[in-house]
Each structure stands twice: as structure tokens, then as C-alpha cells.
């Protein structure tokens, strides 16, 4: 296939504050926009995403819908990743998969961006909008390495600047501008004449293939990085460390992937969950000891009372740790 005749692709990643930013961007695009647009906006597994599809469909001239597995995509259409599933692109079709979470998210931005970079190379335009932490940074690196265009929302224009700031710091974007100016830029970029892309780097190809399967395999992950002495907080598997410039990332062999920031945030969540379990168990133990003391002889009552007091010490310590954990996690958990 002559790649110079293929359409451009626009891939967009957003998180907190994303609906307003996406609405403002979509409203600027003309009805004859000559490229398909793919959107990943972080959402909870319990939501349907219908509200976002409806808002984008009504905000501009382009038809908007959820992406469906094996669906052929068309220029002038917007495809939104469905809830609790990754959306990828390859060979003119959309792929929807229930693969492992990346950066604690499904759908995640990085899998979409990588798949587009591998399949369409320099014909991909990547955009990162408002959001917490740094999902999309690694995917934007893949787009850049494959010759695509990298665009970040001006952090001063973003409701939550973490994601665009991470891309700007780690990737080196081609354009950094407010959402209000992106429509004109996109209309200009999609008209460019481009040479045929070179093949994507092997590590990007491997990660794109991992996203297309529910499970990964050890040889694939071992080819990407070095094993490290701590485990995946989602499945307990061993992690491998990868470094892309200054960005540290981690993968387990089942497919979970994290930036260092996302890994730390997920570890914080797991620590808090463990502390709550420990608190419950110590409180139950104390309640049992108090009940026992009412039925024990005077000789043993003193010992039971002491054990109940010891339990209270542990309870107080765990509560203090939970208060500290709440403060730590408030800035890292969306």
C-alpha cells in the first residue's frame, strides 16, 4: 500500500477535566475534516461513557461514537474508547481489548498511542490534554520516535496540568498551545504531504503487540527491560524496569504497566487497603478479648485485659498511619 495516500490519524488523550477540553476542541473542526479522530478519556469501569459521546457528537460537525472491535474507521468521525476496555488501531480497523490496565487505567492512553505509531508512523498526530499524573507520556514518545507530530495543551490552559507537563518535560513536543488554537493547527497539519514512514522501533512494536493480547509472555517483557526486586501491585507478579529518557516505566509479564508515578500511586492505594484490613483484624481481636474477659476466671482476666490493651496500642498506631496515608494519597489518586 502506498502510505502517502493513507489518511492522517489524530489520537487524543485526556483525563480529569477532559470533557470540557474535548468539547472545545471538537467544536473547532470542520465537517470535512480529512482524518479520523480517536479519543481516550479516563473513566471509571462503572460508567458507560455515553455522556461524553453525546456531548462530542452535539458539540461540532463530526459524528461521534464509541469504537467497536473490528470496526473500520472513516475520516471525519470521532471514535471514543469504551468503558473498561482499551482501544487500539491497526490496518484501518479499531481493536477493542480487555487487556491489563496501564497506569491504573482501562481505557489507557498509552496503548492507543503506541498502536497508532506502529501502524501509521509519521501520519499520526498525538494530542495530550488535561489530566493527573502521566498516562500518555510513553505513548507520545512512541509517536515521536515513529515520526509523528506531538501536541500538548498549554499547562496554563489545562484544568489539571500534570499530563501535558509530563509530556512537555519528557518528550519535547512539536506544539504547546491552548485548546482554542488546536483546531486551526490540526486543519493545517492533516493537509501535509509526507514521505513513507520507516518501520517502528522493535520495543514499541513489542509493547503494541502486548496490548493486543490479554496476557503477555516472559520473553517479550525481558526484551524490554531488567527485572527489579519488587512486585506488581495489581497481580503480585515480578516487574521489569524500562527507561525512556528520564521516564522510568515498569511492566509485569501479565501485561500491567506503570510509569514510576503511577506505580507509586497504586502502591499507596494498596498500602492503605492493607492497613484497613489490619485495623479491622486488630479491632475484631480486641472485641474477642473483651468478650473472653467477661467469661474468664480472675486468674486469667488480667492476662486477657493486658492483651486487649496491647491490641489498642496497635489500633492507635494503624489509625495514625492511615491518617498519614490519606495525606500522601490525596495528591496522587484521581
From TrEMBL:
Catalytic reactions of this protein: [protein]-L-glutamate 5-O-methyl ester + H2O = L-glutamyl-[protein] + methanol + H(+)
Pfam families associated with the record: CheB_methylest
Protein's GO biological process: chemotaxis
Residue ranges occupied by any CheB-type methylesterase domain in the UniProt entry: 9-193
Keywords linked to the UniProt accession: Chemotaxis, Hydrolase
CC annotations in GO: cytoplasm
Active-site residue list: 15, 42, 135
Top-level taxon of origin: Bacteria
EC number: 3.1.1.61
GO terms for MF: phosphorelay response regulator activity; protein-glutamate methylesterase activity
InterPro entries: CheB_C (IPR035909), Chemotax_prot-Glu_Me-esterase (IPR011247), Sig_transdc_resp-reg_Me-estase (IPR000673)
Transmembrane domains' residue ranges: none
Top-level EC class: hydrolase
Protein's recorded name: protein-glutamate methylesterase
Organism: Billgrantia montanilacus
Amino acid at each position: 500500500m502506498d502510505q502517502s495516500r493513507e489518511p492522517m490519524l489524530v489520537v487524543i488523550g485526556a483525563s480529569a477535566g477532559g470533557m470540557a477540553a474535548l468539547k472545545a476542541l471538537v467544536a473547532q473542526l470542520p465537517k470535512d475534516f480529512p482524518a479520523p479522530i480517536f479519543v481516550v478519556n479516563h473513566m471509571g469501569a462503572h460508567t458507560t461513557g455515553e455522556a461524553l459521546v453525546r456531548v462530542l457528537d452535539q458539540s461540532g460537525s463530526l459524528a461521534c461514537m464509541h469504537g467497536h472491535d473490528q470496526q473500520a474507521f472513516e475520516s471525519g468521525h470521532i471514535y471514543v474508547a469504551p468503558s473498561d476496555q482499551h482501544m487500539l488501531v491497526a490496518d484501518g480497523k479499531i481493536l477493542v481489548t480487555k487487556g491489563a490496565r496501564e497506569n491504573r487505567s482501562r481505557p489507557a492512553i498509552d496503548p492507543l498511542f503506541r498502536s497508532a505509531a506502529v501502524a501509521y508512523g509519521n501520519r499520526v498526530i498525538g494530542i495530550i490534554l488535561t489530566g493527573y499524573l502521566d498516562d500518555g507520556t510513553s505513548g507520545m514518545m512512541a509517536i515521536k520516535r515513529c515520526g509523528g507530530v506531538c501536541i500538548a495543551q498549554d499547562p496554563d490552559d489545562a484544568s489539571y496540568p500534570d499530563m501535558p507537563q509530563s509530556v512537555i518535560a519528557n518528550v519535547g513536543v512539536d506544539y504547546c498551545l491552548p485548546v482554542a488554537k488546536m483546531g486551526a493547527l490540526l486543519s493545517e497539519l492533516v493537509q501535509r504531504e509526507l514521505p513513507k514512514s520507516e518501520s517502528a522501533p522493535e520495543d514499541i512494536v513489542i509493547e503494541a503487540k502486548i496490548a493486543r493480547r490479554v496476557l503477555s509472555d516472559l520473553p517479550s517483557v525481558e526484551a524490554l527491560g531488567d527485572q527489579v526486586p519488587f512486585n506488581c501491585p495489581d497481580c503480585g507478579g515480578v516487574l521489569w524496569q524500562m527507561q525512556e529518557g528520564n521516564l522510568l516505566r515498569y511492566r509485569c509479564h501479565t501485561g500491567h504497566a506503570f510509569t514510576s508515578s503511577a506505580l507509586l500511586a497504586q502502591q499507596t492505594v494498596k498500602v492503605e487497603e492493607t492497613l484497613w484490613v489490619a485495623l479491622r483484624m486488630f479491632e475484631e481481636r480486641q472485641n474477642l478479648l473483651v468478650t473472653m474477659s467477661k467469661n474468664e476466671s480472675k486468674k486469667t482476666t488480667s492476662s486477657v485485659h493486658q492483651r486487649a490493651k496491647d491490641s489498642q496500642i496497635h489500633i492507635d498506631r494503624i489509625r495514625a498511619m492511615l491518617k498519614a496515608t490519606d495525606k500522601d494519597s490525596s495528591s496522587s489518586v484521581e
